[in-house]
Amino acid sequence: MEQEILQNIYNKRFYQALNRVEQNIPPIWMMRQAGRYHKHYQNLKQRFSFEELCRQPELACEVTLGPIEDFDFDAAILFSDILFPLDFLGMGLSFSPGPVFENNLTNEMLSNYDLDSFTDYIQFQNESLGLIRQNLKKDKSLIGFVGGPITLYHFAIRNNPIADNLISLALPTLENILSKNIDIQLNHDLDLLMIFDTEANKLQDEEFNSFCIPFVKTIAEKYPNKIGYFTKNISINKFQALKNIKELKLTVLGTQHNIFEELPNTKLSLQGNFSNELLTIDDKNDFKSSLDEYLNLCLDHSPTHRSGWIASLDHGVQKITPEANIHLFIDQIRTKLA
Q1: Hey, which bits of 188-316 come out as E strands?
Q2: What is the pLDDT of residue 163?
Q3: What is the pLDDT of residues 53-67, one digit of tens each?
């Protein structure tokens, strides 16, 4: 059932991009903008583990707000992790430094979970969002997120091939938990909720239509114009399937697409598509040259053609990214396109 959510306007550029209003300067935010490249995050990691930063609401709030304070992004995104639903099921998630599961996914986990208890389990994330919205500047937007069901399933079976035959049971279970997680997050005044589905890029188009599209469509219908979707290196056919979801708000295009040629052919807002590899260039002049080339591409298209664009990357910020490059990216987008 569709749930109406009143839309407050926080960041005007982000709001206008989501509503495809023509503007010269796009909003800017980046996946993993709160992360390992950032000195603010590195300092916190010297004192706290990744899991503590996720599970302690005051720390999650501090990590989330750090990039807003230091780089002036237009939107903050909740600092958390997509894999907590698997921990809820009993897989025993820890980070060392990447995700490690103590237990294999089993039929019993998928059959005997108590969905009502997920609210208590994920309370740390709920409290984090409350603190973030309370402390976030009123001219900044707030984004929540979950992982896609197929992506969580792929993580669950990565070192557990025996679980391969659990997909028919796992996907409905994960969809139920993720739907609950989305409900909880959207109780807060989010501008957008992203479904991060990186593993979906490994699916054939037919598998994508079977395993991914129904869930995205269901969530978008329940929360119209509040849901964005990301998978890596999206194919033309997968992109077309997403464009057919009427209530979906946004998707992310990789650098193999010309985002400004795609925008007039869809009602979606599109996020991207500067290369996160180029953002890691260490030599200042070389980076400036790559950025200038990108800006010239942007300027080749009128603001009308850029309506619905959110300036970002084709994927998340990498650990080796110089902070100076992010400062320059934001400055040049806002200066050259003004």
Answers
A1: 192-196, 227-230, 250-252, 269-274, 309-313
A2: 66
A3: 999 999 999 999 999
Mode of pairing for the β-strands spanning 99-101 and 93-95 = antiparallel
CA dihedral sign, ordered 195, 269, 29, 186:
negative
Q: Which two tokens stand for residue 113?
A: 């979970």
The 10s digit of each residue's pLDDT in 143-169 is 999 999 999 999 999 877 666 689 999
The answer to whether 284 and 239 are in contact (CB under 8 A) is no
Instruction: Name the CA dihedral angle for 53, 139, 216, 159, rounded to a multiple of 10 degrees.
Output: -20
Q: Would you identify the CATH topology of the domain 12-336? A: TIM Barrel (3.20.20)
State how far the Cα of 193 lies from the Cα of 186, in Å rounded to an integer: 8
Residues 120 and 333: their CA atoms lie apart, in Å, by 42
**pTM for this one?**
0.95
Tell me if 161 sits within 8 A of 97, measured CB to CB: no
Domain assignments of the chain as residue spans, ordered by start: 12-336
